[in-house]
Design brief:
It is built from 14 helices and 16 strands. By secondary structure, the chain is of the alpha/beta class. The chain has one domain: TIM Barrel, CATH 3.20.20.140. The strands form two sheets. Strands 1, 2, 3, 4, 5, 14, 15 and 16 form an eight-stranded mixed sheet that branches. β14 and β15 form a beta hairpin. The protein starts with 6 loop residues before the first helix and ends with a strand. GO terms for molecular function: hydrolase activity, acting on carbon-nitrogen (but not peptide) bonds. Keywords: Hydrolase.
Length: about 400
């Protein structure tokens, strides 16, 4: 397994506007293994004290027994790409897009995000994908350094195996970029996420405006790219992840053989296994299992793959990602609490577990000396309502 990202190398990702003092009192504190009525105090951006009881000290925020839980940690979101390309072939100005993306995540309770960016382009055929990750990463890192964001942002490079320029694009990143995650993505049609070719056609043809002939040509081009570059790109991407000291993730494992390869490559967590067989193999290999919040909320995968609820009920779910709906992350945690009858366990899937999977030891739990990333949440007809969010004790929502 690759070495986890060093917290010391990540801690400065968002250290602007640290609050000197905040006390959230008379709250139901969601701790690692229990819900405790008490108060939580943040000093200089760090949790300084946790006290049991319903007392409300002078100057404290009376939470009226709302839940207080750690800020949500998001490992894989397509949201930044949605903001920079709100419609096909529409290139939105990147800095305003990044700021809007940051504000949207903060408004949903996410206080740490690994922004997923595709590396690996296709310059042939109608289904072209241009190289954008290095430029966007530079803009994101500059905005982060200037204190423009409300929450913590890190890089997640989605290494597209079925592409023409993957290794060249990965080679443009280095240690100073502090890449947190590299995920191995193979979207070759007919396998993994897109075993169902009808689902693949509905997804790609609609998104790219392809007719039947253009779609067929696109499929053939992808198959040729996989045959030509697939093995080379997978080996190279694993090596690049080690060079960057990033956590390695797999994507859309479908069979036990896929998972065995993931384990051999040193994968730390599996994004969206598509079958129960693959999820069970992940558990057997000690690989953390991540599923999408939209899948859980909808009760099914939009690609026809295994339902997240089925894996949750089988004890085969460790981490939840908002994927393509940021607001789904908080909702999914409370949905899991109903399935498991265990709120702390459910909240861990969107806080502690993703933080640990990404190698972040300074957040994801309500404990003294950890970052003051916290949320105040109330329940209205079993729907969680975010009443306030704080990053290092500074109000962000």
């Amino acid at each position: 397994m690759n070495s986890p990202v060093s917290p010391s190398s990540l801690k400065n990702a968002h250290d602007i506007n640290v609050s000197n003092h905040l006390c959230l009192a008379n709250a139901r504190l969601v701790l690692a293994d229990q819900v405790l009525l008490g108060s939580l105090t943040i000093e200089d951006g760090v949790i300084a004290d946790i006290t049991e009881g319903d007392q409300v000290p002078d100057g404290a925020v009376d939470c009226a027994q709302d839940f207080v839980l750690p800020g949500l940690v998001e490992l894989h979101t397509d949201n930044v790409e949605r903001h920079i390309e709100p419609r096909p072939k529409v290139d939105w100005p990147h800095l305003p897009a990044l700021i809007a993306h940051d504000a949207e995540l903060a408004s949903t309770g996410i206080t740490t995000v690994f922004d997923a960016m595709r590396v690996g382009s296709i310059h042939s055929g109608k289904g072209r994908y241009i190289d954008y990750a290095r430029k966007l990463a530079d803009e994101l890192l500059a905005a982060r350094a200037a204190g423009m964001f409300k929450i913590s942002h890190f890089l997640h490079l989605r290494a597209e195996i079925c592409s023409e320029t993957l290794l060249e694009e990965l080679g443009r990143f280095c240690a100073k970029d502090r890449v947190g995650i590299v995920s191995l993505m193979d979207h070759t049609p007919g396998q993994r996420q897109f075993r169902d070719m009808t689902a693949f056609k509905n997804y790609v043809a609609k998104k790219r405006g392809m007719n039947d002939a253009e779609f067929a040509a696109h499929v053939q081009n992808l198959l040729r790219l996989q045959e030509r570059f697939g093995a080379k790109h997978e080996i190279g991407a694993v090596a690049e992840a080690k060079r960057l000291e990033a956590v390695l993730a797999s994507h859309d494992d479908t069979t036990a053989a896929h998972v065995a390869t993931s384990a051999k490559n040193g994968v730390g967590f599996a994004e969206f296994p598509t079958t129960r067989e693959a999820a069970q193999a992940c558990r057997d290999h000690g690989i953390a299992i991540m599923m999408g919040a939209p899948n859980l909320i909808r009760g099914a995968s939009h690609s026809g793959n295994v339902a997240a609820q089925e894996l949750a009920e089988a004890d085969l779910l460790d981490i939840v990602s908002s994927d393509y709906v940021p607001a789904a992350l908080l909702l999914s945690a409370f949905r899991l609490a109903q399935i498991w009858s265990d709120l702390p366990r459910a909240i861990s899937t969107v806080t502690r577990n993703p933080a640990e999977a990404a190698g972040l030891k300074d957040r994801g739990r309500l404990e003294t000396r950890l970052r003051g990333d916290v949320l105040r949440v109330s329940l209205v007809n079993e729907t969680p309502i975010l009443r306030g969010g704080w990053s290092q004790g500074a109000r962000v929502s």
